[in-house]
C-alpha cells in the first residue's frame, strides 16, 4: 500500500491540482498531472489539441499517459476530469494505484470555474447548465471507479488529510 500511486480524480475544478500539491508536500511524493504531461508532449494546450486534432486524439494520448504512470511507484497522479470516465483508463490505473474521487457539488464547481476560459467543455453561454449536464453523466461512473471518495468542498488541507487517512498513509 505504501508504494502504490494515488490517483486523484473527479470533475474539473474539484481540486485535483491544489490537493495534489498539498499531498505531495505532506508525503514527499512526486505530483504528476496527466493534462500537463499531454500538453508538454504535444507542445500545445488541451484547448489547442481539441481544436486541431479532436477529442478522440486527446483521449488516446491520455490513455497512453495513464498506462505509463500506472507503472510508477509513490506518485500522486492528478488525472484529467474525463480520464476516469473511460474503462480502459480505470483498468490501467487500478493495477498500481489507489483511485481517490474528490467529490464536489456542481454549485461549488461553478463558483470555482465561472471565470475560467481554459476548459473546452465549458466554453458555452450557460456554464452552470453545462456543468450540471456533464456532472450528471459522469457522477455514477466516477463513483463506480473510486476506491475511496472524499469531500472536496472543504479546504484543501482537510481534503489532503482525508485522502491520507483513506489510503492508509497517515
The low-pLDDT segments are: none
What is the string of helix and strand elements? Answer: EHEHHHEHEHHEH
Percent range of helical residues: 40-55%
What is the mean predicted local confidence, pLDDT?
92
Word description of this protein:
The protein is of the alpha/beta class and 170 residues long. Helices cover 54% and strands 14% of the residues. The chain has helices at 16-27, 34-42, 46-53, 55-70, 87-94, 106-113, 127-145, 156-167; strands spanning 5-9, 30-33, 75-78, 97-103, 148-151. It has a five-stranded parallel sheet, with helices on both faces. Helix 1 crosses helix 8 (156-167), helix 3 (46-53) crosses helix 4 (55-70) and helix 6 (106-113) packs across helix 7 (127-145). The longest helix is centred in the last third of the chain and has 19 residues, at 127-145. It is globular and about 45 Å long. The relative contact order is 0.22.
Keywords:
170 residues, alpha/beta, 8 helices, 5 strands, 54% helix
What is the topology?
Blueprint: E1 5-9, H1 16-27, E2 30-33, H2 34-42, H3 46-53, H4 55-70, E3 75-78, H5 87-94, E4 97-103, H6 106-113, H7 127-145, E5 148-151, H8 156-167
Parallel strand pairs: 1-3, 1-4, 2-3, 4-5
Helix pairs in contact: 1-8, 2-4, 3-4, 4-5, 6-7
Describe the structure concisely.
The protein has 170 residues and is an alpha/beta fold. The protein contains 8 helices and 5 strands, in the order E-H-E-H-H-H-E-H-E-H-H-E-H.
Amino acid at each position: 500500500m505504501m508504494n502504490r500511486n494515488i490517483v486523484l480524480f473527479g470533475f474539473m475544478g474539484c481540486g485535483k491540482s491544489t490537493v495534489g500539491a498539498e499531498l505531495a508536500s505532506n508525503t514527499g511524493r512526486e505530483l504528476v498531472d496527466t493534462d500537463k504531461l499531454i500538453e508538454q508532449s504535444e507542445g500545445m494546450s488541451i484547448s489547442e489539441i481539441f481544436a486541431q486534432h479532436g477529442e478522440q486524439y486527446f483521449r488516446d494520448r491520455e490513455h497512453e499517459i495513464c498506462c505509463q504512470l500506472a507503472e510508477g511507484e509513490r506518485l500522486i497522479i492528478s488525472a484529467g476530469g474525463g480520464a476516469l470516465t473511460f474503462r480502459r483508463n480505470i483498468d490501467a490505473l487500478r493495477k498500481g494505484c489507489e483511485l481517490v474521487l474528490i467529490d464536489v457539488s456542481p454549485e461549488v464547481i461553478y463558483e470555482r470555474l465561472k471565470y475560467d476560459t481554459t476548459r473546452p467543455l465549458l466554453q458555452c453561454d450557460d456554464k452552470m447548465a453545462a456543468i450540471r449536464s456533464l456532472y450528471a453523466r459522469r457522477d455514477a461512473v466516477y463513483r463506480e471507479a473510486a476506491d475511496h471518495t472524499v469531500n472536496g468542498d472543504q479546504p484543501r488541507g482537510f481534503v489532503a488529510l482525508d485522502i491520507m487517512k483513506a489510503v492508509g498513509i497517515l
